[in-house]
Amino acid sequence: MTRGKKTETPDLPLDDDKATSSHQEGAAAPDEPDKLEELTTLVKTLVQSQASRDKLVEKESARQDQRWKNLQHQFQLLQTQVKELKDDFETRAEQEEDDDDDVGEGADDVQLAMPTSYGPVPPTQRGPILQKQPKILPLSPEDDIEHYLMTFERIATVCRWPKEEWAIQLIPLLTGKARSAYVLMDFDDSEDYEKVKEVILAKYEITAETYRKRFRALDINPGETPRELYVRLRELFNKWVKPEACTVKEISEKLILEQFLRMMNPEMEIWIRERDPQSAEEASRLAEVFLSARSGRGRPNFGRDSCFS
């Protein structure tokens, strides 16, 4: 029997469940920062998206407010025009009533001379002509310059503005390239509407040659009716030839000139057009100059299919 001897207890392995739990906790610890970073990124994205939507809503709201202000302004202009028309009609009615009273009071003392025929009433016997000043919006970058000028001319015609005042009425409405074209005009020509119109269209690269090409084109606009096609061709021809300002001989010369150039060699045609001949006879002299400067042996062919070396 041995006394004082201690009994050693062997080390026991850890429980399997506790070991597994410790391992999972250790593995989960590094994943928490990644999830936090991902959540932060998501929140930032949502905030940015919301800010973008807020900006779009604010921009659309501003656009609607501006549109509403424009509508209010146009409505006020219409109200002003209606009021002016009403006042004019009332004034005219009062004047006519006063005239009738004057005639009635003097009918017993004055023997009126009755006309022997029922011709047109002289201007002095007519009532006052209302020449209203319609509200024409200034030229904007989105406007078609040809349509704008055509609208202006029709309004001026309906309102019976004297032709010599058209330029004065148009100038305050010009903006951008059109205004710069007017500013660069010769002062003596700045009151002539036709000359003002010509330099404005030239600034937009619209000339008689432009109208000629459009007139000769074979394209029909989408949805265009035969009647609309006829009106368009008539306007293009008038803008190209300007028959109201030309004699029959001058119109004939323009048509002959066009056919003459269409038969020329393309190189010669461009050279002649650059010198802007006003008649076919002048164009033929320019063609002779062109050929004499390039002729070698013999007479070169100047037809459409020919070429110059």
From TrEMBL:
<dbReference type="Pfam" id="PF02023">
    <property type="entry name" value="SCAN"/>
</dbReference>
<dbReference type="InterPro" id="IPR038269">
    <property type="entry name" value="SCAN_sf"/>
</dbReference>
<protein>
    <recommendedName>
        <fullName>SCAN box domain-containing protein</fullName>
    </recommendedName>
</protein>
<feature type="domain" description="SCAN box">
    <location>
        <begin position="212"/>
        <end position="288"/>
    </location>
</feature>
<feature type="region of interest" description="Disordered">
    <location>
        <begin position="1"/>
        <end position="35"/>
    </location>
</feature>
<feature type="compositionally biased region" description="Basic and acidic residues">
    <location>
        <begin position="1"/>
        <end position="20"/>
    </location>
</feature>
<dbReference type="InterPro" id="IPR003309">
    <property type="entry name" value="SCAN_dom"/>
</dbReference>
